[in-house]
Amino acid sequence: MAKVQFRITDEVRALGVRGAYAVMRGLANRERDPRFERYRAELVERLRSELPPDCLAADPVLKGFRDLHDAIGRSNRRFPSAAESLVSLFLRKRIVPAINLLVDIYNCVSLETRLSLGAHDLGKIDGNITLRLTDGSERFVPLGQAAPETITAGEYCYVDDGNEVLCRLEVRQVEKTKVNIATTDCFYIIQGNRNTSAAVLRVALERLVALTAEYCGGTRETTWIEAD
């Protein structure tokens, strides 16, 4: 099986987009795991004190995403980062959403770090992946939808060789590569911004890989760190 390649363009790097990325294969996903449920319950209790009500405005990582959106002229009200949406949900309901094990794991790491995390089923990706600015020709079918939406030029997006968006900004993933119970191979995104160092990204990456291997098995094939 050919190794997937990933690259980030200089134009996106200049905006301040930073990230860590990984390919893991041989994963065993499932709906639930009793051991993980205990881990998640403990995390929720810990985050009750670590995420005060004012953290949405005060957290430097979340602010860094808003700064990125300002730089490309996108409304933060309309396009909150995935991390900000997840933290906002936690503050309102004190929960980590239950989707499936692979997704629940990366959501836990996102809440811990305030980085925006996502995973894409490698078997549904066309060729390699580039994080680049859009030109408006790309196909974008958001998660949960059947029909494509128009995407405007000048947004930083993860795009495969088929010119299909996999993730719009660090805001919205797509239906095509969503992770389900049958997923065995994933491309992981751990995205930050100017306020996240290479060390922070690497720690989050190792945390994600360790938790995923503990509960879903699998092996890490490739990793990339894109930071100053």
Give a description of the structure.
The chain is α+β, with helices and mostly antiparallel strands and 228 residues long. The protein has seven helices and nine strands. The strands form two sheets. It has a five-stranded mixed beta sheet with strand order 1-4-5-6-7. Strands 3-8-2-9 form a four-stranded antiparallel beta sheet. It starts with 5 loop residues before the first strand and ends with a strand. The model has no long low-confidence stretch (mean pLDDT 96).
What descriptive keywords fit this protein?
five-stranded mixed β-sheet, 36% helix, single chain, alpha+beta, four-stranded antiparallel β-sheet, 228 residues, 9 strands, 7 helices
Q: What portion of residues belong to β-strands?
A: 15-25%
Largest sheet: 5 strands, mixed
* Spatial arrangement of strands, main beta sheet: 1-4-5-6-7
- Which structural class fits the helix and strand makeup? alpha+beta
Q: Provide the succession of SSEs.
A: EHEHHHHHEEEEEEHE
Globally, the shape reads: globular
Give me a quick take on this structure:
Helix content is 36%, strand content 23%. With 228 residues, it is of the alpha+beta class. The chain has a 5-stranded mixed sheet with strand order 1-4-5-6-7. Strands 3-8-2-9 form a 4-stranded antiparallel sheet.
